[in-house]
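Everyone, study these two lines:
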Amino acid sequence: MIAIITAMDVELENILSRLEDVKEVRRPGLFGYTGRLHGTEVIAAVCGVGKVCAAQCAQLLISEYRPSALLHSGIAGAVSPDLRHLDVVVARELTYRDMSEPTKRDFVPFGGYFVADPKLAVALRKAAPDSHLGCIATGDLFVSSQTEKERLRQDYNALCAEMEGAAVAHVCAVNRVPFGVIRCISDLANDEAYGDYEQFELLAARKSADILCQAIGYFTGKEGVK
């Protein structure tokens, strides 16, 4: 079984429309659906916004369903100057952007940097050939400042900033579950970010979920299976 986490309902709905033999899953801390995608059993759940929600969802899925891999889809603000709206980023690694480097180094597993599974990254990039591979920076605050954007680029060489990915990666790494993370750019993380976000949020969320679904077929070798 492969687990899928989305941060937003619209992404879960997009994935749900592609599933066969769908059954709803609803219990405290977990809302989603089981089914088959490309002939593979999946559990797809929406975690909500922020690191705590994402970590809780990831651990529940891993503890209850013991997936062979976990994929996380969502939207992000562009940090790299090379990125534009609706561009796609595939995580090579993820880290926290709202925690000091000494704290990460001394108290967080793997020094606070979590490396995505190479096979999952390859499958995601095969589904999105024009995607960018690199670091994703996670924190609980929405980035809407050119100054903060520059800090993230200088400190982490991050391609984009979002609010859940490193928490999902953290839980997967501790549990030794291979993971992949994909983000589609909804805004440029600058002073105009809130306006851009409102315009591109749904388009970016749906594009990210579409690519994730296609990547599962590539990862499992069942891309021709409906």
The mean pLDDT is 94. The CA atoms of residues 124 and 215 lie 5 Å apart. The beta strands are 2-6, 20-27, 30-37, 40-46, 69-78, 88-96, 113-115, 132-138, 158-162, 179-187. The chain has seven helices and ten strands.
